[in-house]
Amino acid sequence: MKAQSLGSIRKSFAPWADPTQQPYIEFDAVTKDFGNFTAVDDLTLSIYRREFFALLGASGCGKSTLLRMLAGFETPTKGRIVLDGEDLTGTPPYRRPVNMMFQSYALFPHMSVENNIAFGLKQEGMGKGERADRIAEVLKLVKLEPYAARKPHQLSGGQRQRVALARSLAKRPKVLLLDEPLGALDKKLREETQFELTDLQYELGMTFIVVTHDQEEAMTMADRIAIMEKGQIVQLAAPPEVYEAPASRFVADFVGSVNLFEGKVVRKDAARIVLEAPGGGEMVVDSTAPAEIGETAWYAVRPEKLRISAEPIEGANVLSGEVWEIAYFGDMTSFHIRLDNGQIVRVSMINRHRFSPLQLTWHDRAHVAFDADAGLLLNR
Ligand code: ATP
Questions:
Q1: Quick one: 176 and 77 in the same domain?
Q2: Is residue 51 classed as helix, strand or coil in its secondary structure?
Q3: pLDDT, tens digit, 9 for 90 and up, residues 120-139
Q4: CB within 8 A of 315, min separation 6: which ones?
Q5: Which of 88, 250, 347, 361 has the fewest CB atoms nearer than 10 Å to its CB?
Q6: pTM for the full model?
């Protein structure tokens, strides 16, 4: 499946698909060992100017180490990092045109907002007049003008986050690195700030690299996402492709929720594959993936792509079981259906109407079905 057919969010921005574009940042076969532990393993990656790039992975997968090597706080054991054509090996952090915003924000508690921002500029030797202009500019950018004289403890979590951002932006780095930038914010504020960050990045035309373990955050903000596992990139793609065409079971399961139906390939033709269905029977799925008859494969279907009914459903790709869990979220309801072989199938249903016509409760018999093109056949 091609990425284009999945739809892109920022349609006109895809420098990685244009062979005439030069990458802005290049990790070239970079390895980082800590003793005999390899945190980043022979990783090659190109990031483009003005890109909002996300490194996504579980705790310990090496994403912060990668960012820290770009910032200059760690030195690669092997390989090199190039920024704008310049090899960064040997360049100390303060000489690199990158700035890092830390998880903890690391604000000076005894200094006002204004002075927190001024600190780095003073260190750079910037004159008083220019400094005042620059501070005013970034405070306006992050909408904190009325708070210039406050100390960090007189601000909310979201405001502190914006001070940290203003401080990073004030130095006008070419690249801003954000390590779990929204981790300390509550859900609502996090959602708002995600949009603010993307707007700001677009307005400033800067390159942002964000490290996160929150897939929603990566999906909302990034042009492309690199999914990392054990120091390596296991998929690099735009958000719709990561979600709709995951490269492996690991990615499918890590990003969003997924049902994985395991079965042997029974038959195949040019466009369709017939798999053993869970608990007997067959599943017919659209797929041109290389799959050998007799081999085990997995059909990955997202919960929102299944239909659910209290009545038996006619046709192919129907599974039946017992309603095991129901979670009502207001906008949608999530059902867990326990098939007769014990597998749990997740189905999510948008609550388009205030009163649901679906009368299902715990322990009822339920039937779920999906179309032949609802998911993706994976063989790893
Ligand atoms: P998190 O989301 O928890 O921050 P991460 O993906 O950013 O995780 P890293 O901080 O890059 O992970 O760490 C990757 C691995 O390298 C971890 O197993 C960590 O324990 C190890 N590691 C990181 N820094 C050091 C160090 N200075 N010495 C030894 N091991 C380290």
A1: yes
A2: coil
A3: 899 889 999 999 999 998 89
A4: 369
A5: 361
A6: 0.87
